[in-house]
Amino acid sequence: MTIVTPFAKAARLIGVASFLLAIPAISQAKEIVDVLGRKVEVKDHVERIVLGEGRLSYAVAILDKENPFERIVGWQNDLRKLDPHTFEAFKEKFPKVADIPLIGQASEVSVNVETILNLKPDLVVFSVAGEGPKAHSPIADTLASAGIPVVYVDFRVAPIENTPKSISLLGEAMGREKEAKAFSDFYGKHLDAITDRLKDMKDEQKPTVFAELLAGVWQAPGHTTGNGGLGQFIATVGGRNIASSVVPGAIGDVAVEFVLKANPDIYVVTGNRDPGLALGAGVPEDKAQASLDKVLARPEFKELKAIKDHKAHGLWHDFYNSPYNIIAIETLAKWIHPDLFKDLDPARTQRELAETFLTIPTEGTYWVDPSVSQ
């Protein structure tokens, strides 16, 4: 028979306590509901994030302001390929971006699942549409079966509704709820300032608008937006998108003849690289303006009344896939209803956004008008 003295009991308890203290704390999981309504278990203290598109770093930068690339351990190569001016500006300030491992190039078919698994992410973020794995992608199923949480965000299909939702769910997943709420409040305040003035506007008071996406870069003129994406911005600020009746989704193509027949009041072209419209971080205004003049001189659309009436404008293409889209919304509001929104100042809003939420470089040209000579 073994007799356990009070002293021995105390020593044993101290030993157990010391052992428990030596064990790392077990990470707790929380349930995140993404924009597709999927319930995803994400652990606390996410440290390793893989992005289905490099341009999703625009959103991460809001939440991880002081070190926006610290937690990103993998992404696609789309930022370098499709928004090169911004990539170079990021690389100059944060050299690490050049060394972030690539999971693919700029398409879903190029994404390598094994590469993602080898990166051992705590969280994978995909967009519902775009150049990476899309909604209901089998890649997400493969990762989930391996115990890796995947959440979907959306800044491009239904951006007005899903920008605040996407930032909110990422904030919850990344432990940045305070930062997410602050941005959502900022976004809502600026959006309400526009929509409140338009709530009683009749359709006949709304100018017609044609938005040509990646003008001069896309394989044929007429690449445009329908009822989602940039088209949603146009509708929100009181414009009538001429392509909304023929392009049901966020993007599509229309014939040159269709545009010439509609002869819209306002013509907006988007771009971010040569040989089209040069806009984005690090782009000087004179270069942006010269590139817009070149795009507007193409023979297909040069007879549009919008060009002749000096109502043609250039907009950074990647606003369509970024939480910074509130800047594009304000800019479009001024172009479409200049008298109603003469007090609106997108440049001031951009400065406020940059100073409050970002450390990534934003200096550059993001919207532009043609030169007087054009």
Short description:
Helix content is 39%, strand content 16%. The protein has helices at 6-22, 57-63, 78-82, 84-93, 113-118, 138-145, 159-174, 177-198, 230-236, 256-262, 285-296, 305-308, 325-336, 346-357; strands at residues 29-33, 39-43, 49-51, 72-76, 102-104, 123-127, 150-153, 208-212, 223-225, 240-241, 251-253, 266-271, 280-281, 312-316, 364-365, 367-368.
Low-confidence regions: 1-26
Reported by name, the CATH topology of the largest domain is: Rossmann fold
Radius of gyration: 24 Å
Cross-sheet strand order for the largest sheet: 5-4-3-6-7
Helix content: 25-40%
- Average pLDDT, rounded to a whole number, is 93
Shape: globular
Per CATH, the class of the largest domain reads Alpha Beta
What is the end-to-end distance? 103 Å
CATH superfamily of the largest domain: Nitrogenase molybdenum iron protein domain
Largest sheet, if any? Answer: 5 strands, parallel
Category by helix and strand content? alpha/beta
- Classify the beta-strand content into a percent band: 15-25%
Number of domains: 2
Number of strands: 16
Enumerate how many helices there are, as a single number: 14
Q: Output the helix-strand order.
A: HEEEHEHHEHEHEHHEEHEEHEEHHEHHEE
| CATH architectural name of the largest domain | 3-Layer(aba) Sandwich
